[in-house]
């Protein structure tokens, strides 16, 4: 799109070879900031797990140079930034795939048993003194209970046992009398048989008949005893059989009721319903380093917390916090398509806003509920399909922040961070702090203990002089609000109109030539971040006998002037529009511009 025509005496001329419509303009790649110093960041005194070799290999060291308003260098953190992992199952390691399968199995079992719908807040643990009191009290209560129960058992035995003994004795006497009668019958039969017995061949048969008679009588006696015993046990067996049938029926009924799994959704995504659920579960696994049981516990705690807070109802509530719209808002996308959320702490210098947000516990809780509501609504717009954008970039502007002396704001910030880390795992793609004042190290120490190593690795810090340059590393200029060094604002141009970024070297002149071949209305807007340069524009016709037209007389644009300049020129003949930036300062400058043409009638 642009070519360097000449580069002599620190003057660089860029020729725009054609003038396409705004939709086809492609921005030049941003220039990476020069690393002036690398200073160590103080590490908070917290125990953390060592980084894995895989993470170290993927790490990219990012060093931001911060400067105070007076121009003195500030110490800056040297951070390790991890590449955002894939949300596609096919890209996972085998161990990670196995963990995901096990996690899904645990979730499926919990859905089958309706465990999520039964989640309640666990009771708070009792203090040691309370526990001792409870133990002593329970032991004292048990003693009188045992004293009362013991005589009752003894009385029951005294009343019941004699009856049982009498019944047994009666049965025994009846059985003995029957045996005696049968013995007498056997003896009589034996006597008669003996009298008739002879020494002939019939003698043996008679003896056999006597033996058979004795066996028959004895077997009849034993069968009578068995019959009476069975009659006694029969009711008890029938009772057991009936109870067993009842238990089986109950089991079958309960199994039938729990065959249908419960439906549980989180951030609008039903668990295990489709592959979007895998993206959700991977967030919990990665937050717990792929430890399945820990991830499952975190998921259950998150679902419990969402039920207790009433997230679905909270989404529809009007909390009356419209005045917070300037303090927290979504604006544009970063270069990877992540939505960008801006947190402007300086807005809380407004005493009325600060009082309405943090003056008491009720208002702080209302602020937290509003912040959660805002985040939930933003998350619902993310793409949870595998490979989609399911994380957010946050930009925290600390310019004119109330500072750490504001106890109420510090408490609310700490609570919010804890809630977000416990219940919104892996939703942060990048956390950028800009306009960081001298006390940013204090803030860093305050926040760090509540964040994991993984979360801290996504942090980027930049001082006032480096804020705009840092933002353009991650976010295109057309997506950055004007107040933060971009060109995004209400007007003729929108976020779809790409911006060209050029770095102007110190004590150098940069010229952009835009050729125009037909009658049209050429419109452009531009800015130099921090200005303090000379700017001019002119139209040079192609015809030799035509005159150059001065569109903007060269003048110095101060730092305090309007951040964006918009110009337009009606082109009546072939020629070129020349934009000139003369950087007379000792610092490099970022030059941003975009343009579009419209046909115009004579």
Structure, described:
The strands form six sheets. Strands 1-2-15-20-17-18 form a six-stranded mixed beta sheet, with no helix packed on it. Strands 9-10-11-12-13 form a five-stranded mixed beta sheet, sandwiched between helices. The chain has helices spanning 53-58, 94-112, 128-196, 202-257, 275-287, 292-309, 311-316, 351-358, 361-379, 407-423, 440-447, 453-456, 467-474, and strands at 2-8, 11-16, 60-63, 66-67, 73-74, 78-81, 265-266, 269-270, 328-333, 339-344, 392-397, 428-434, 459-461, 500-504, 508-516, 520-528, 533-541, 549-557, 565-571, 575-583, 589-598. Among the domains are: 87-117 and 263-309, Helicase, Ruva Protein, domain 3; 317-475, Phosphatidylinositol Transfer Protein Sec14p; 500-599, Jelly Rolls, CATH 2.60.120.680. A hairpin with a 2-residue loop joins strand 1 (2-8) and strand 2 (11-16). Helices cover 42% and strands 21% of the residues. The chain has 13 helices and 21 strands. Helix 2 crosses helix 5 (275-287) and helix 5 (275-287) packs across helix 6. The longest helix has 69 residues, at 128-196. By secondary structure, it is α+β, with helices and mostly antiparallel strands. It is found in: Cytoplasm; Membrane. Residues 126-146, 154-175 have a biased composition (Basic and acidic residues). Residues 317-492 form the CRAL-TRIO domain. Residues 116-177, 217-242 are annotated as: Disordered. This is Patellin-3.
């Amino acid at each position: 799109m642009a070519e360097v025509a000449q580069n002599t005496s620190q003057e660089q001329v860029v020729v725009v070879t054609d003038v396409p419509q705004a939709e086809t303009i492609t921005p030049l790649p941003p220039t990476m900031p020069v690393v002036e110093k690398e200073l160590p960041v103080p590490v908070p005194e917290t125990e953390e797990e060592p980084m894995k070799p895989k993470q170290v290999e993927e790490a990219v060291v990012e060093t931001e140079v911060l400067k105070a308003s007076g121009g003195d260098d500030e110490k800056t953190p040297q951070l390790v930034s991890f590449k955002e992992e894939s949300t596609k199952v096919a890209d996972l390691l085998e161990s990670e795939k196995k963990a995901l399968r096990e996690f899904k199995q645990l979730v499926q079992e919990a859905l089958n048993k309706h465990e999520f719908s039964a989640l309640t807040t666990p009771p708070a643990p009792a203090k040691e003194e309370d526990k001792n009191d409870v133990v002593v009290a329970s032991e004292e209560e048990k003693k009188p209970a045992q004293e009362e129960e013991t005589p009752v058992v003894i009385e029951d035995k005294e009343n019941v046992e004699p009856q049982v003994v009498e019944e047994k004795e009666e049965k025994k006497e009846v059985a003995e009398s029957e045996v005696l009668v049968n013995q007498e019958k056997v003896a009589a039969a034996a006597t008669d048989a003996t009298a008739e017995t002879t020494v002939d061949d019939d003698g043996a048969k008679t003896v056999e008949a006597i033996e058979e008679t004795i066996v028959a009588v004895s077997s009849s006696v034993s069968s009578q005893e068995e019959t009476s015993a069975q009659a006694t046990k029969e009711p008890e067996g029938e009772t057991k059989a009936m109870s067993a049938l009842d238990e089986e029926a109950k089991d079958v009924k309960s199994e039938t009721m729990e065959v249908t799994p419960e439906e549980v959704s989180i951030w609008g995504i039903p668990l295990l319903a489709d592959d979007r659920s895998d993206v959700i579960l991977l967030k919990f696994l990665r937050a717990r380093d792929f430890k399945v049981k820990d991830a499952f516990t975190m998921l259950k705690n998150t679902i419990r917390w969402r039920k207790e807070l009433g997230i679905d109802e909270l989404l529809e509530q009007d909390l009356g916090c419209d005045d917070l719209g300037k303090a927290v808002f979504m604006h544009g996308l970063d270069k990877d398509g992540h939505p960008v959320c801006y947190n402007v702490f300086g807005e809380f210098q407004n005493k009325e806003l600060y009082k309405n947000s943090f003056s008491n516990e009720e208002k702080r809780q209302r602020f937290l509920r509003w912040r959660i509501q805002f985040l939930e609504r933003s998350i619902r717009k993310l793409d949870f399909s595998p490979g989609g954008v399911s994380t957010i970039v946050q930009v925290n502007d600390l310019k004119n922040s109330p500072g750490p002396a504001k106890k109420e704001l510090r408490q609310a910030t700490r609570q919010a961070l804890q809630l977000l880390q416990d219940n919104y795992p892996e939703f942060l793609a990048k956390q950028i702090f800009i306009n960081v004042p001298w006390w940013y190290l204090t803030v860093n120490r305050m926040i760090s203990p509540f964040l994991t190593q993984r979360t801290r690795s996504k942090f980027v810090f930049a001082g006032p002089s480096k804020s705009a340059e840092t933002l353009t590393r991650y976010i295109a200029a057309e997506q950055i609000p004007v107040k933060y060094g971009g060109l995004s604002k209400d007007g003729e141009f929108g976020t779809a109109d790409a911006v060209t970024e050029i770095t102007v070297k110190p004590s150098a002149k940069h010229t952009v030539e835009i050729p125009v071949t037909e009658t049209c209305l050429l419109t452009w807007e531009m800015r130099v971040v921090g200005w303090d340069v000379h700017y001019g524009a002119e139209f040079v016709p192609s015809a030799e006998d035509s005159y150059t037209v001065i569109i903007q007389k060269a003048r110095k644009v101060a730092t305090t002037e309007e951040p964006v300049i918009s110009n337009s020129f009606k082109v009546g003949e072939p020629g070129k529009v020349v934009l000139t930036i003369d950087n007379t300062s000792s610092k490099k400058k970022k030059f941003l511009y975009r343009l579009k043409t419209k046909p115009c009638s004579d």
